[in-house]
Amino acid sequence: MGKEIIILTISIGNDGAERVLSELSSEWIKQGHKVSIIQTGAENYGVSYKLPKEIEILNIRTTSKIKPIRYIQQIAKSISILKQRPDATVLSFIVSSIFVCGVSSFFVKNKIVVSERNNPKECPSGKLQQKLRDWAFCRADVCVFQTEDAMKMFPEKVQRKGVTIPNPINSNLPKPYKGERRKVIVAACRLHPQKNLPMMIDAFSILHDEYPDYRLEIYGQGNEKNKLEKYVKRLNLENFIIFPGFCNNIHSKMVDAAMYVSSSDYEGISNSMLEALGMGIPTIVTDCPIGGARMVIKDGVNGILVPIKNTTALYEAMKRVIEEKSFATYISKEATKICEKYPLEKISQRWIEIL
């Protein structure tokens, strides 16, 4: 008999956490489970990921522009929905939604599962918000983390009910590309300070002096876009670094690229990194907290790890992939083995065992 799962989130938008939720929920529907999604802010954040028609979408509308009042309205409406479905397990990934779950837990009988998807010391910002986050985690029945490092950053009470589950890898990735790769370096991420894209741009700028026929394509949306485009223009690289925005068919844009690069200062387990590895794209990422990159990449074997905030190391890694063709081919081949380790079907079943 299938389980009833209610996902409580701001929206199924364009961030990595929502990407995982959309893929897991689609897989759970295939397995015969019932999935509903409560969205508390779809009108502000939008819905970017496609979902099966069998998934029920419940949008909570608020009437106030004052944040505390809006939260109270979201909590009250969430409680009303959950009381009608006491046998459903509630799952939440986003900090603000986890707080709604924490308050709701006083008034409902539902099992509540929450998950940390980033570096707990950096996200959310501010000690008050982090204390509220920790309190909400204490109210949950199960707390899921991507890595052991992330779990150890929480109070002992949270760790005692913590489990680790890595991100799944999309089962519909294109097959690894064979042949001459395009002279394009790709990145896919939110355009946010966390991703330290100026460092990536600076590393590419150095590389460009030696290899002017290469381009950098940075896919994604975010409030840093205008700032980044101005920075690229100041470097006179606007013809070589582009920001195509959010892309639903990102895999087809990436699969034959020369390499995939991530320059994040901190990260959970990057979905685009996993998919780049799965497609056999030579992959370079920063070895950043909370250890997601080093959990899946063995430096020099199936990818390259570089220190955070180190422009020179990133440039040298990019140059190595260009110049050492046999090395690039080797790490590309080794990278595809990740698909056997974290398939969506296997990871989704681990979630069901907890839910």
Entry keywords:
six-stranded parallel sheet, 2 domains, seven-stranded parallel sheet, globular, Rossmann fold, 13 strands, 355 residues, 42% helix, alpha/beta, 16 helices, single chain
Number of domains: 2
> Class of the largest domain, according to the CATH hierarchy?
Alpha Beta
Query: What general outline do the C-alpha atoms trace?
Result: globular
How many whole angstroms does the radius of gyration measure?
A: 21 Å
Helix content: 40-55%
Order of helices and strands: EHEHEHEHEHEHHEEHEHEHEHEHEHHHH
Distance from first to last alpha carbon: 14 Å
Sheet with the most strands? 7 strands, parallel
**What is the level-2 CATH architecture name of the largest domain?**
3-Layer(aba) Sandwich
| Discrete helix count | 16
Which structural class do the helices and strands define?
alpha/beta
Q: Strand percentage, roughly?
A: 15-25%
How do the strands line up in the largest sheet?
3-2-1-4-5-6-7
Low-pLDDT runs of 5+ residues are: none
Find the CATH topology of the largest domain.
Rossmann fold
Q: Which superfamily, in CATH terms, is the homologous superfamily of the largest domain?
A: Glycogen Phosphorylase B
